[in-house]
Structure formats: structure tokens, C-alpha cells
Amino acid sequence: MDFVHDSTFDGRKLKFFAVIDAFTRENLALEVDTSIGGERVSRILDGIIATRGHPGVIVSDNGPEFICKLMDAWPYKRGVKLQFIEPGKPM
């Protein structure tokens, strides 16, 4: 899971939250908004789990949405391991 940032022609910031299955390369979620925080990320992930089942590991960078207190407790409560990539490295 990761965020991608862009802007509209008039300069408004857009934030894209993407969740990709690394094995099948299937896009499991793509949310677009001007702001997406940790609570919304947890709701999106809960929705994926409800339809697809529990992943063993979720890989992400250590951005503020993924290291907040809510997202620190989320995987623990659901038995999912969060694996953070090293800063500046895509894998």
C-alpha cells in the first residue's frame, strides 16, 4: 500500500491511496481525495479484509498515515504484520 500525489489543473492537491496485491498484481483499492488519514486507511483495509480475507503481511513505507497510533494498533488487533520498507527504497 502506498500514496501517490498529484494536483488538478487549478492547483488543488489530490491524494491517491492504492493497495496492490504483490502476488497477483491486482488493485485491491484505489481511493482518491484531498486528504486521507489513518482512520480512513484502516476502514479501507477492513473492507478489503472483509471481502478478501486476512493478509499475512502488508508492505508500506513509513509515511505519517501508516505510523500513526491508530495504524500501530490496527494490525495488532487483526493479526496482520506491517512491514515497512527502508526510506528511499522501493522494495
Please provide a written account of the structure.
With 91 residues, this protein is α+β, with helices and mostly antiparallel strands. It has a three-stranded antiparallel beta sheet with strand order 1-2-3, with helices on one face. Strands 4-5 form a two-stranded parallel ribbon. The mean pLDDT is 88.
Compact overview of the structure:
By secondary structure, this protein is an alpha+beta fold.
Low-confidence stretches: none
Q: Widest sheet: strand order?
A: 1-2-3
CATH uppermost class: Alpha Beta
Helical fraction equals 25-40%
List keywords for this structure.
91 residues, alpha+beta, 32% helix, globular
Note the topology:
Elements: E1 2-7, E2 13-20, E3 27-33, H1 38-52, E4 57-60, H2 64-67, H3 69-78, E5 81-84
Parallel strand pairs: 4-5
Antiparallel strand pairs: 1-2, 2-3
